[in-house]
Specification:
Elements (H helix, E strand, L loop, with lengths): L2 E2 L5 H10 L5 H12 L13 H10 E2 L5 E6 L5 E8 L2 E9 L4 E4 L3 E3 L8 H4 L2 E4 L2 H19 L18 H6 L7 E4 L9 H12 L11 E5 L3 H10 L3 E5 L5 H7 L8 H12 L32 E7 L7 H10 L5 E7 L13 H13 L3 E4 L21 H10 L1
Parallel strand pairs: 1-2, 6-9, 9-10, 10-11, 11-12, 12-13, 13-14
Antiparallel strand pairs: 3-4, 4-5, 5-6, 7-8
Bound molecules: S-adenosyl-L-homocysteine (SAH) and iron/sulfur cluster.
The site of S-adenosyl-L-homocysteine has 15 residues, from strand 10 and strand 12.
Length: 407
Amino acid sequence: MTVNLLGLDANALAAFVAELGEKPFRSKQLLRWVHRAGESRFAEMTDLARSLREKLAKSAVVSVPPVISDSVSGDGTRKWLLDVGGGNAVETVFIPETNRGTLCVSSQAGCTLGCEFCATGKQGFNRNLTTAEIVGQLWLANRLLAAASAGERTGLSEGAAPGERTGLSERVASGERVVSNVVLMGMGEPLLNFDNVVPALRLMLDDNAYGLSRRRVTLSTSGIVPLIDRLREECPVALAVSLHAPNDALRDRLMPINRKYPLRDLLAACRRYLERAPRDGDAAGEDGWPSMPDKHGYRPGAPRDFVTFEYVLLSGVNDSEHHATELIALLEDVPSKINLIPFNPFPGADFQRSPPEAVRRFSEVLNSAGIVTTTRKTRGDDIDAACGQLAGQVQDRTRRIIRMEAA
Ligand code: SAH
Ligand code: SF4
């Protein structure tokens, strides 16, 4: 069986390398070649023994989903549509800003949760993406963006002598416009694909792979309470929570998941996420944080001391001053920042974007209560790459089953 190395985090790669009968340091070299240098051809991995390169050629690949389309918005936002097989396609979006480049990554083909205001939710669900398909989005974006900035056609190392090769990390360090931040805010609910998402996060954080700090990797969730706790235990990264309503009655209507995990439970999970209490066996570091690495080699504890709450403003639905006041009371006990998102329309949507005046007022009320509130700029809407517009292409197995039952 051929293994896709993009799907193996450091531990899994070490096990694979051991199975091949190779020394452990080879797995570190491989991680660097695959993720840092963006190399997919084993023959080019010049500091690996020829015998190992031959073994790899027989048993492994570095393979990403084919790109169906590549669009660039007037504001520089770039969107790739990736073919993940079976008639399904997912989207990845790169948002360049002055001092950073953020990649918005998808975690599922579709979403099971059916939020009323979301194009992804409206189209149903087909399947979870694999770790390789999730990390592959970052691998591909780094490669395509670096290639574009170097004026190359196909990739980083084409035609370069080994000594001339420049690693992506060096390019990032030298300020080139490649990915410096990742947000899991594309298609799908990342926590409902936990087992594939966590190894992907570990690779994003791994110094031998992408080396992003935990503060620069943000997972956005609709609020799957038990899995927020598990994320904190297993791989804490910056947390964003899609709130969108200040009370259960309204949130039940906009986000059906709220009926299972209501606001009270969700906010308690957010507070736990931010707790710094060391676990048994952890020694506290100078700053009071647990300093002992966990079983995966990482130091446990939340990487940021606040949760970002996303709040999409829907005209006449959740955007009054009264809603803002309710929100302030709701978040009283949770260190928070609020990110207001103007609603992005999509075909068949039943909502309208709040007028700028309503957005301004809503934001003012929150800010004057001392809650840091930002309004997300709409980026890439001319290529349908803005939040909530990502629809890709999903063959909806869920709905087909329902239709069959109804027939
Ligand atoms: N499933 C996760 C992550 C993906 S959605 C979650 O719900 O958090 C990324 C963000 O875009 C979420 O905050 C989501 O609520 C928001 N969003 C969805 N549809 C939108 C729309 N039409 N306009 C603006 N934001 C939207
Ligand atoms: Fe799924 Fe998030 Fe869209 Fe809700 S907002 S349907 S959870 S992707």
